[in-house]
């Protein structure tokens, strides 16, 4: 190994693409570590508080693409208070003061301010791609800065962010000289859009492949856009409402016939079902269809649409499709790999329209299925056993029975055996979310069989500390564990403290861990940040026996964070 | 019927609806900053909300991400989950205007009752039932800037196009607006003119 010049090593490492493999390469020896770090261009940071921007910049001077994640996953469900943290500003400041020529920034669950966006746009001359997922804290003013200043912008992808909409003029801030756009997604913006500016932008972007519009873009504009961009591969419609007898709709029908490249379709945030036939011609080519925000498409219209999509690999849908609709999916979409069925009734008080029958049908008809998110009314052990047998290739299996702790309705038993079958059969399972009535036994199975499991989400489950211990002992590859409303206490928390340094993070809320237990853990493991979230000032310093409502711990190189708000105590 | 002098109720300061009490689906920027007090307020929520939330008092369940919760519209609830529709309401003779949230009302009679409460005047619901004899004429300004009589179009269409409301005195209707009156009633009210 010492006999190769660095350039040869570097060339070999070029073929090593995944983050994990590159991390492994860097551990072989000092020489490899050096060559690897100097040649690394893409870095993934799963927890922005695990290290500092300075450490990152020092180690990877050739950094071109950075992915950062901020808040814990349960922040998605309002379990983490606002102002908890996850600010991108320090990262952008550090990058702008360095010599790093960052070209791509991908953020998830972070707080992004207009100031951050403006700084980014002004200091990174070569910046090409901004992807923001589930972020907040910025407005269209920040977007205007990106549009105006990033001369080589190729990608602006905003997914499910909370953005304050001050005006639609940010689109007009793209200069006439900007012709490099490949991907533009502003579906999550709520306000009006300068439609003329949008059409002009599309007209001067010959490389545009992906365009996702927001609700404010009417069908007429969609028609005009598709005329100018028939090369689109990924389309998200805005408002899809018109009179099917109109001239505009007629034109749309003809224009769509030319859009032979569309493979991903989404949107339909508002929809007139009678206008759906216009998209039938492209259905056969679709590999990905997201109708999870299209509450206006249901019943027979929905089924008619699905029947035409024989090549679908990814389908995101609302549960109003029903078990019967899922049977149609099962018989039509033989290539299906990923399915997400979301509840239409998001308050969760009604009845989901899908049950175990829909899932069984899918598993029987779609053997290539490997990723599942399924919100349902009920589930049985028998069904899960069949699903496990039909689909041994699951990588992600997330099941949410809407009513917490609901047992198998046929046998009134817990769902331990069903989930046990899943983990036993699916040897490549990396992510699992449990629901329904569950005892310690399911965790015994998980610890025994889920050898590749990296992320586990548990709610309202288990009887004793044993449950959590089975998982911590058995799942060697566990990286993220998030638990809510389970009877796990200090014994479970403290039995194997070394485990947490092998993981990215642990979240426990509404469990039985005490302040004393958390303090003990923090003392024994100085390289973990053990954070207690003390909302509503419930906790008093000094009383060791009181239960901790929310605890989040993670490994870190840089000790307690300096931006923690008042209600977060780092022990 | 009380006319003229304003009841004490009108001078009483009233806060608008609590952000949380309209249900977690109606969340604007301020609400998301107060997510936890909003959840706490759920426990004090109105009966209307309680009936739809008997099961989901559990915070963060089902685990649907908050963006999706805020932006998922059900067809039938589409109008309810739209952002609040506050419009100004003026009444001839009242010294100041009020604001009313149209999205909180189910129909014309509901609206009429609310208006009566606001201005402590009785007669608006009469106007809708029996135009001939009522003192007040409820009109609204629509998207095109025209003043229209309340009650002609279906409720959903009305709240989409209503920009502001005015409770006009019948006497004003005769002179100020130049409405063509047939047998003393505005055209739109013609029903039974056998009097």
TrEMBL record, chain A:
InterPro entries: COI1_F-box (IPR041567), Leu-rich_rpt (IPR001611), Leu-rich_rpt_Cys-con_subtyp (IPR006553), Transp_inhibit (IPR041101). The keyword Phosphoprotein does not apply. Residues 61-107 form the Transport inhibitor response domain. Pathway: Protein modification; protein ubiquitination. It is found in: Nucleus. One of its GO terms (molecular function) is auxin binding. GO terms for biological process: auxin-activated signaling pathway; pollen maturation; SCF-dependent proteasomal ubiquitin-dependent protein catabolic process. Signal peptide: none annotated. Keywords: Auxin signaling pathway, Developmental protein, Nucleus, Ubl conjugation pathway. This is F-box domain-containing protein. It comes from Carya illinoinensis (Pecan). The lineage of its organism: Eukaryota, Viridiplantae, Streptophyta, Embryophyta, Tracheophyta.
TrEMBL record, chain B:
It comes from the Eukaryota. GO terms for cellular component: nucleus. Residues 84-172 form the PB1 domain. Keywords: Auxin signaling pathway, Nucleus, Repressor, Transcription, Transcription regulation. One of its GO terms (biological process) is auxin-activated signaling pathway. Its main location: nucleus. It is found in: Nucleus. Aux/IAA proteins are short-lived transcriptional factors that function as repressors of early auxin response genes at low auxin concentrations. Repression is thought to result from the interaction with auxin response factors (ARFs), proteins that bind to the auxin-responsive promoter element (AuxRE). Formation of heterodimers with ARF proteins may alter their ability to modulate early auxin response genes expression. PANTHER family: AUXIN-RESPONSIVE PROTEIN IAA17 (PTHR31734), AUXIN-RESPONSIVE PROTEIN IAA5 (PTHR31734:SF87). Homodimers and heterodimers. Belongs to the Aux/IAA family. This is Auxin-responsive protein. The lineage of its organism: Eukaryota, Viridiplantae, Streptophyta, Embryophyta, Tracheophyta.
